[in-house]
């Protein structure tokens, strides 16, 4: 059929592929950031400049009720009584193309410990009656607050961290593993994998009349090959976000620091602990690349350096747990991007008043495969700290990767830890802006 038949059809036929190729920029929004102090306090009004860029805003969080296993607000007081759910979905009147999704779980809805940790996320899957009740409760929640769908940041068990042992330790570990099977994360992983496919299908069905979206976020250290079936999930998922970061954190591995969000494989690391391996896994198992989003963190992980630390190679030696807390996030072992740039300085600042040089040494990523880090050795009056982080430059390298591989876009985790005030010498939301510029 020729284009001359009808201008309308012709324009449409040309436009559809262009629209379909628009990269997605999914922005996570951690609402508890309103509790932070000083320049870290994040208000709803801070979202506005980001929402000109984000195609989707994911509200953190909704939770599974411990008794009924239905979907409920995580923080009833803030989300519902103080009306924050509604305030967020109302933003669509100013940003008509924005989709708002309710994010489920995200490691914020935790119960129990050890093998019992977050058991409800598996219990729910095991009964079709409970799954249907969950799907119906999700429909009601999404519909009544005006969201466009949900994102399942499902809390499957996390991989055990890799340990570095002396030779004797290594022998002991393989002995223990053989005899106690302590590496098995979930005896029923294969069943849970199939049941999760069913849940996604049931959700999509429950959402059909309103065309609500269902997406999945693979949380850090959740092993896709154990719990997810890409080929059978594909028909009912709008997209999947792969959070390929936090393989090493000061809590998981107090004595091993590493690049927190490597794009490619690192020396002496498990081969699947990087973005490229994860993306390949999903694509090789039948999931369309155009529906895969690369997760990009906006924060860094920090370790405390002892007085006999050796930092001239990676991983550094002489670490003992989380680095000192930052002034806004006030949590040891983690720093937001603005906390990092104010500490270590910013050699790339384009605008006036860049943060002044400091006693930190920054090691940029010449390989474009690993990420950036900075450190300060301990002195008599200052603690030593090692910071592995994502910068606007490394985030842009990841956006290049997304383009080169024909992926669907990126998902930022999260807006409240990006430089939303613009203190780093760039415009507000430095990492988000950098990703957008590269994807365009
Ligand atoms: C994920 O599971 C596969 C087996 O299904 C295993 O080979 C791989 O090592 C696991 N990855 C991690 C990081 O534990």
Describe this structure in words.
It contains 14 helices and 15 strands. It is an alpha/beta fold. The chain has a single domain (21-298, 391-439), classed as Glycosidases (TIM Barrel, Alpha-Beta Barrel). Helix 13 runs parallel beside helix 14. It is globular. Mean pLDDT is 90; it is low at 166-172 and 175-181. The structure holds 2-acetamido-2-deoxy-beta-D-glucopyranose. 2-acetamido-2-deoxy-beta-D-glucopyranose binds next to helix 9.
Tell me briefly what this model is:
The chain has 440 residues and is an alpha/beta fold. The protein is built from 14 helices and 15 strands. The strands form two sheets. Strands 1-2-4-5-6-7-8-15 form an eight-stranded parallel beta barrel, surrounded by six helices. Strands 9, 10, 11, 12, 13 and 14 form a six-stranded antiparallel sheet that branches.
Write the topology of this structure.
Elements: H1 7-20, E1 24-30, H2 48-51, E2 56-64, E3 71-73, H3 76-81, H4 84-90, E4 99-105, H5 120-123, H6 128-145, E5 149-153, H7 167-180, H8 189-206, E6 213-218, H9 224-227, H10 230-233, E7 239-242, H11 275-284, E8 292-297, E9 299-310, E10 317-322, E11 334-336, H12 337-344, E12 361-363, E13 372-376, E14 384-389, H13 392-404, E15 409-413, H14 430-439
Parallel strand pairs: 1-2, 1-15, 2-4, 4-5, 5-6, 6-7, 7-8, 8-15
Antiparallel strand pairs: 2-3, 9-10, 9-11, 9-14, 12-13, 13-14
The structure holds 2-acetamido-2-deoxy-beta-D-glucopyranose (NAG).
InterPro entries: Chitinase_II/V-like_cat, Chitinase_insertion_sf, GH, Glyco_hydro18_cat, Glycosyl_Hydrlase_18
Main location: secreted
Subcellular location: Secreted
């Amino acid at each position: 059929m020729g284009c001359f038949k009808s201008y309308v059809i012709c324009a449409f036929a040309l436009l559809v592929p262009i629209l379909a190729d628009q990269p997605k920029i999914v922005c996570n929004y951690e609402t508890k950031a309103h509790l932070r102090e000083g320049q870290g306090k994040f208000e709803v009004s801070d979202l506005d400049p980001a929402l000109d860029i984000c195609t989707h805003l994911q509200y953190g969080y909704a939770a599974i009720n411990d008794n009924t296993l239905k979907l409920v607000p995580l923080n009833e007081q803030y989300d519902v009584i103080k009306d924050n759910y509604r305030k967020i979905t109302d933003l669509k009147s100013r940003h008509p193309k924005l989709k708002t999704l309710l994010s489920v779980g995200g490691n914020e809805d935790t119960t129990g410990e050890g093998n019992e940790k977050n058991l409800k996320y598996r219990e729910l899957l095991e009964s079709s009656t409970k799954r249907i009740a969950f799907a119906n409760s999700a429909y009601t929640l999404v519909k009544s607050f005006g969201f466009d769908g949900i994102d399942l940041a499902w809390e499957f068990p996390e991989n055990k961290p890799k340990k570095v042992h002396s030779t004797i330790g290594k022998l002991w570990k393989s002995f223990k593993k053989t005899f106690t099977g302590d590496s098995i994360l979930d005896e029923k992983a294969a069943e849970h994998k199939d049941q999760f496919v069913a849940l996604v299908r049931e959700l999509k069905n429950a959402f059909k009349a309103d065309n609500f979206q269902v997406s999945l976020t693979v949380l850090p250290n959740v092993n896709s090959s154990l719990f997810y079936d890409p080929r059978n999930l594909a028909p009912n998922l709008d997209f999947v976000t792969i959070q390929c970061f936090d393989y090493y954190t000061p809590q998981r591995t107090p004595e091993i620091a590493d690049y927190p969000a490597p794009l490619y494989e690192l020396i002496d690391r498990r081969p699947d602990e990087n973005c490229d391996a994860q993306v390949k896994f999903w694509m090789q198992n039948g999931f369309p690349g155009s529906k895969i989003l690369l997760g990009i963190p906006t924060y860094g992980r920090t370790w405390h350096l002892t007085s006999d630390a050796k930092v001239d190679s990676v991983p550094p030696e002489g670490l003992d747990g989380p680095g000192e807390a930052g002034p806004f996030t006030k949590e040891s072992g983690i720093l937001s991007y603005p906390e990092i740039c104010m500490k270590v300085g910013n050699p790339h600042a384009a605008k006036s008043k860049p943060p002044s040089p400091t006693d930190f040494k920054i090691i940029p990523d010449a390989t474009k495969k690993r990420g950036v880090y900075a450190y300060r050795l301990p002195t008599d009056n200052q603690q030593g700290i090692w910071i592995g982080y994502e910068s606007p430059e490394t985030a842009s390298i990841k956006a290049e990767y997304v383009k080169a591989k024909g992926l669907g876009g990126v998902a930022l985790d999260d807006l409240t830890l990006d430089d939303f005030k613009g203190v780093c010498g760039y415009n507000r939301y430095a990492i988000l802006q950098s990703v957008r510029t590269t994807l365009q």
